[in-house]
Amino acid sequence: MKPTVLALVSASAAFLSADPPPAPVPQPPISIVMAKEAPVPLKPYADVVQGAREQRGLFTLWRKDDKVWIDLKPEQLGPLFFLSWTFPSGLGERGIYGGMMGDSHLVYFKRIGNNLQLLAHNSAFTARPGTPMAHAVADGFSDSLLASAPVVSLPDPRGKGVLVEANLLFLKDLPMATLDLEAAFRQPYAMDLPNSSFASATAAPDYASFQVSAHFSMARPVISAAPLPGTLEDLRSLFLGFRYTLAKLPGEPMRPREADDRVGHFVATVWDFTQDDRPDPRIRLVNRWRLEKADPGAPLSRPKHPIVFWMDRNIPEKYRDAVRAGILEWNKAFERIGYKDALEVRQTPDDADPDAHGLLHASIRWFLGVDAGFAIGPSLVDPRTGEILAADIAVGDGFARSIQESSREELPQAGKAACRYLAEGRDELAFGADLLEARGGMEPGTPGAQAFVQAYLKSVVMHEVGHTLGLRHNFRASIAYTEAQLGDKAFTDAHGIAGSVMDYTPVNLALAGHAQGDYTMATLGPYDYWAIEYAYADLAPDREKADLARIAARSETDPLLAYATDEEAGPGIAAMDPEVNRFDLGQDPLAYLAKRIALSHELLDRLQERTFRPGDDFRQLRRTTSLALNQMATATFNAAKYLGGVVCLRDHAGSARAPMTPVPGARQRAALKLITGSIFTMDALRLRPEFVSRLVVDPFDRGYGPVGSFPDFSVSARTLSIQKAVLARVLNPFAMARILDAPEKTRDKDVFRLSELFDGLHAAIWEELHRGSEPTATRRGLQKEHLRQLIALVLRANPATPDDARALAREELELLRRQLATADRRPGLSRETRAHIAECRATVDSALKASMQRASL
């Protein structure tokens, strides 16, 4: 019987509270003289491998029982090889999943006496061979030792190779999975070498692979705020799969292509110290596959070696057509630059090893996890040239369940950084499906719902394949098309719903009664064709630099090629460009945000009108309500980016556009009106009591996890959390500083003033003071939060807070003191409201008194 979590935590508490062991008795220092060990005599090659099974390939492997030896020939000592690893098996939770791609190194073997070292070559810092700076680079930057093992045999009389025990090289935690386990669970797991073993070892002409069953264990759990593993039979023991691939690099390095910041590609950064006439020694090389025409003279030719995507056997058959279509859609972009069938798709047979590939291929696989609702498209590159050598797209099974889940509410999970399109898009998928179902005709399990999921999956696969081709996110692509174009089905069929599949596009939902285009990206956008052209066009070496500059400059005159990526989208309050968002759509982002708020209200209204038959349960209502509230939170938070917003472009000298342009005053006022009229209004998010009383948690989850521990659903608390986030966004010091600085960057006289922001917030948040009405509990919470943030500006201001912002905040407190002085004298107010007014008045008085005392010091 498994121990309960409570028992384990209790045991841990007892362990931590036990008396500490006695301190060690100090001992006098000991002088240690290291004696030189006598060398271990090497055995004849044949004696070591006697009874072992031989596999020939790039490296000859010998295996006997639990031992694997690798034959290293003299010519294999020194040259670079490509070492990569994947994770064939995992835990199914918190970022540790089977089927994930790991990392890679350029490595080489070095023999020192009878010791063999496996070293990672530091290829990021270079200088032209033979120059004085090449010697300086060698002296200035270190390689890294990954593993070492003794040589155990004399040279083979036939091939002159010597044997090294591969167990000592690869039965190690080279991926540093211990750190992943520590980050996920905060428990002292460590790799248990005696119980780790090789699951397989394979020799092939171009590579050798070693699959390790790595055992991790801990003696006992410790008390931690992080949840304990929930997918293990015994949380003290777990196995992870590592698959190491040691492969031959291409014989001739690929000719690199320098990146341009106007086009979004992943890059390999190389520091070239050959000359000191460049202000920045860093060179950014586009990550791309090696692609060459089989017929260089033909305008359209097949490639010598296509980019092959292997579809893993674990992809459900009902989704394989959508996955295949998402991959092959990219052939349209390559055809435009002269390549026919640049991408090929092959199905891995059911009886084949899904990882039986070396380099120069891509895989797409399905993985499972109790919290796996994301997709990821990483690739491994030759850091010297940017050549992509392998890629692995992994799609989480959970996304397809999104439109059929009940009231399950999920929190963000720990794990590795990844493309969040599918993970964050699950809410989009579910919101769109729930709204369409509420309108009628999209019930789960119907052909319409299945087509909806298939179309969304194709768009996600296109996005992730774009990553494996070297393309970064483009979060400005969503502003490409007008509202009328987005509602035209023929237009969206031909052009998509955004300028690029590399954006995070929401479900394209029309208002009720309006024309409806495609719900998701059905094809590539114009930006995708352009980015592929920059990376893969066949250009003459003597004209490449000029041709690339010409290609990149097209973005300065063609709005369909607009580009901005993760840095501009930000996280949180760091973002300042309101045109760069995740999950927005249309040429007018502010209008889109207003539409999303309207759609959220439509969904909530339809939910409140829903009738139930005897036996129906209410669990779906809670999840759908959360989705609608999340939409409002995202919309109002993004609308706040207009306040102090600056549109930032990547144009180079010669462009007619300014790189930085403050948002016009009229647009900022419109954004403030949208925010105050939707989330700071007196009637924000009022739902019928009989509806709120049905927002129950799944009884099976009650008492488990962060949501099940709080089965009650508080609309007031959820509303207040949205209001707090938006209020903090509009009053953050950097946004206020940009409002004040706007006149420095524009000749527009109609600038938005910081005083307008303070006045607008006051009028919306304290409306009851002017009307003489009773504030609800939610409104009282918002008013106290507004006071807290004003007081923080006055007494605990961030060093970046402008002086004018502090002065306006103090003026606002003075105004509130005067208004609150008589507010509780009005008849008919509840005791709660009178207490609220009295507390606010006392809080303001204390803050102003502290402000005066501070100013007099």
Automatic annotation (TrEMBL):
<keyword id="KW-0732">Signal</keyword>
<dbReference type="GO" id="GO:0008237">
    <property type="term" value="F:metallopeptidase activity"/>
</dbReference>
<dbReference type="Pfam" id="PF17148">
    <property type="entry name" value="DUF5117"/>
</dbReference>
<protein>
    <recommendedName>
        <fullName>DUF5117 domain-containing protein</fullName>
    </recommendedName>
</protein>
<dbReference type="InterPro" id="IPR032534">
    <property type="entry name" value="EcxA_zinc-bd"/>
</dbReference>
<dbReference type="Pfam" id="PF16313">
    <property type="entry name" value="DUF4953"/>
</dbReference>
<feature type="signal peptide">
    <location>
        <begin position="1"/>
        <end position="18"/>
    </location>
</feature>
<dbReference type="InterPro" id="IPR034032">
    <property type="entry name" value="Zn_MMP-like_bac"/>
</dbReference>
<feature type="domain" description="EcxA zinc-binding">
    <location>
        <begin position="450"/>
        <end position="770"/>
    </location>
</feature>
<dbReference type="InterPro" id="IPR033413">
    <property type="entry name" value="DUF5117"/>
</dbReference>
<dbReference type="InterPro" id="IPR024079">
    <property type="entry name" value="MetalloPept_cat_dom_sf"/>
</dbReference>
<feature type="domain" description="DUF5117">
    <location>
        <begin position="99"/>
        <end position="293"/>
    </location>
</feature>
